[in-house]
Specification:
The chain is built from 17 helices and 22 strands. By secondary structure, it is an alpha/beta fold. A seven-stranded mixed beta sheet has the order 15-16-17-14-13-18-19, sandwiched between helices. A five-stranded parallel beta sheet has the order 10-9-8-11-12, with helices on both faces. The protein has a three-stranded mixed beta sheet with strand order 1-5-4, with no helix packed on it. It is globular. It is about 35% helix and about 20% strand. The protein starts with about 25 loop residues before the first helix and ends with a helix. Bound molecules: NADP nicotinamide-adenine-dinucleotide phosphate (NAP).
Length: about 550
């Protein structure tokens, strides 16, 4: 049972009409700001599209600096939006079973497939993505939705999830205990980073909606065109109040949080620090999930030859993570550890692959790497390279100066791939202290011992993912036990899995995404675990037969 927002036209899911300040879906040319016809982005709040008011922020094409769209910095009724989610959205989703919510997610995935080319074009224009980068983000979003659609079907016509088996708590089996997960009452506020406007929106949305929580999503302003279009596509496919969009700066968004709400944040550690102590979050014990900075490591074990399958996988992963999305991936490999006696060989192989990478306007054919997403990003990356350059040697790309292909002179936020090197990784402070969110990595030498490799991972003070490449089970066993506490995911590259590996940089909906310490301490996805962020665990205590009937056993 899907209720449509008042005034929406069910024949045109990309249009919601009837409210003052409504944004109609423009054509692609208008959307990109051609002919001076700049699009003013609208937020989707309380069931209608409204453009807000006040000063404006301009979204640009990071390759050409051409303005693409504008968005007002405020002027929205956020009190109304939170109330609408809590009442209308919560009620509508609360009437549905997991199977019905899963069916909604399947519809969203289908909508992405139907608009795939348009979304890719937006990601190229507004995100500086190559076509391949754009597909990674957009298809990744659809994959997360499909995964949770299937989970919804498996969870079936229920509204509770059993957590473990019944436990005898009385003198006889008649008196029992049973833990259950039940949907949390409140609003799921999703705040996303600029680098994955599709995947970030969809992976959080899939978990919250399947759990039964209404969502207010806030994409990063600079690259919001893809997320904005997604919500245009999704709005009329969902029950009223299930999904709202705030596009533009956050303003006083967090001041509207209350009991039962959940905040899922992806972004920088400075913003995360502010969120942790925000009075609205502290006062109401609002559940907060943080995905922040990460200094992911890749380790080559001494048993691997670069010419074998495991060695080839290692090289491919290192080079892909350096260049894919111009290094703006939270899971990208920032620190590479190789045995000292193989250092020169690895350096040569990496360099040889990188000289073939073409950097320029990703709208052109044959470009392998686009610009950084914003001028701020470029400046931050330059500052990071300068810090690293003071403590490391140059191996490839100097400090990132580049003459990009097909770009007007002096335009665009480009930095070329940079590889730095050090023989003393443990004493190289900038390597372990600061995430450079761009196409930069550092090659480091070690003695080949698993204990050293694990300590190297730990120096990052908490990663989202780290990877080790080895076919020596003894080496892997020693490394995993010591390194696993410092990383949310450990990717173990070996010859047997090399042919079907997606690489450490790909987040899978079936596995946890998140990491300890610097990475924020959060957990997203991981199949059914991803729903738990949006559900309350409750211990039921009573007659065993009643408890069994409640969980459908
Ligand atoms: P950011 O500046 O922290 O922004 C992230 C989001 O927070 C944006 O939507 C931003 O909105 C919003 N925001 C900023 N100030 C806020 C406030 N006071 N209240 C509420 N929301 C606020 O980070 P970014 O530059 O977009 O992303 C880069 C960082 O994200 C990198 O450091 C990277 O490590 C991290 N990242 C982590 C993961 C992960 O999964 N762990 C994934 C991707 C990126 P505006 O855009 O409107 O300012």
């Amino acid at each position: 049972m899907i209720r449509r927002a008042a005034g929406a036209d069910p024949r045109r899911p990309d249009r919601a009409a009837g409210a003052a300040g409504v944004s109609m879906s423009p054509t692609l040319g208008e959307r990109w700001g051609k002919n001076g016809n700049m699009q003013l982005l609208a937020s989707y709040l309380s069931g209608s599209w409204s453009v807000g008011s006040g000063s404006k922020v301009t979204l640009v094409n990071p390759s050409t600096e051409e303005p693409l769209a504008e968005v007002h910095a405020g002027g929205h009724d956020l009190t109304g939006a939170f109330g609408y989610a809590r009442t209308t959205g919560g009620r509508e989703l609360g009437q549905l079973t997991f199977a019905q919510r899963g069916a909604l997610l399947a519809g969203l995935a289908k909508a992405i497939h139907g608009a795939r080319e348009e979304l890719i074009a937006l990601a190229i224009a507004n995100g500086g993505n190559t076509r391949s980068d754009a597909k990674f983000d957009i298809d990744g979003g659809a994959l997360a939705l499909s995964h949770y659609a299937e989970l919804g079907a498996r969870l079936g016509e229920a509204q509770l999830i059993a957590d473990g088996e019944p436990i005898q708590v009385g003198r006889t089996a008649r008196m029992a205990g049973q833990h259950v997960w039940v949907r949390q009452r409140g609003v799921a506020l999703h705040i996303n980073a600029f680098n994955f406007p599709s995947w970030g929106l969809c992976e959080k949305l899939a978990c919250a909606l399947l759990a039964g929580m209404p969502v207010i999503t806030k994409p990063a302003t600079a690259t919001a065109l893809v997320a904005h279009r997604l919500v245009e596509l999704f709005a009329n496919l969902l029950p009223a109040g299930a999904l709202q969009l705030l596009v533009g700066p956050p303003g006083w968004l967090l001041d509207h949080l209350g009991p039962g709400d959940v905040v899922a944040f992806t972004g920088g550690s400075d913003t995360a620090r502010m969120l942790r102590t925000h009075p609205g979050i502290v006062a109401h014990s609002v559940r907060l999930n943080i995905e922040a900075d990460s200094l992911n490591a890749a380790i080559l074990a001494p048993d691997v030859a670069l010419s074998d399958e495991t060695g080839g996988l290692f090289l491919a992963d290192v080079v892909r993570d350096l260049t894919q999305k111009t290094g703006q991936k939270c899971t990208a490999i920032r620190r590479v550890l190789v045995p000292a006696d193989r250092f020169a060989e690895v350096a040569d192989a990496v360099r040889e692959r990188l000289v073939r990478v073409t950097v320029g306007d990703p709208a052109r054919e044959g470009i392998g790497m686009g610009p950084l997403a914003t001028a701020q990003q470029r400046d931050d990356v330059r500052a990071g390279i300068a810090r690293l350059a003071a403590a490391t040697d140059a191996l490839h790309g100097g400090t990132g100066e580049i003459d990009p292909i097909g770009v007007p002179a002096g335009k665009g936020y480009f930095i070329g791939p940079v590889v730095r090197a050090t023989q003393s990784p443990m004493t190289c402070a900038p390597l372990h202290e600061h995430e450079i969110f761009g196409p930069v990595t550092t090659l480091c030498a070690y003695d080949g011992q698993p204990a050293f490799a694990a300590e190297f991972v730990a120096r990052g003070e908490g990663c989202l993912v780290s990877s080790a490449y080895s076919d020596d089970r003894d080496w892997v066993g020693k490394f995993v036990t010591a390194a696993a506490p410092w990383t949310g995911r450990l990717y173990l590259g070996s010859s047997k899995m090399a042919a079907q590996s997606p690489g450490p940089g790909t987040v899978l909906p079936s596995l946890l995404h998140g990491g300890p310490g610097r990475a924020g301490g959060g957990e997203e996805l991981g199949g059914e675990r991803g729903l738990h962020r949006y559900m309350q665990r409750c211990a039921l205590e009573g007659d065993a037969s009643i408890l069994k009937s409640l969980i459908g056993a």
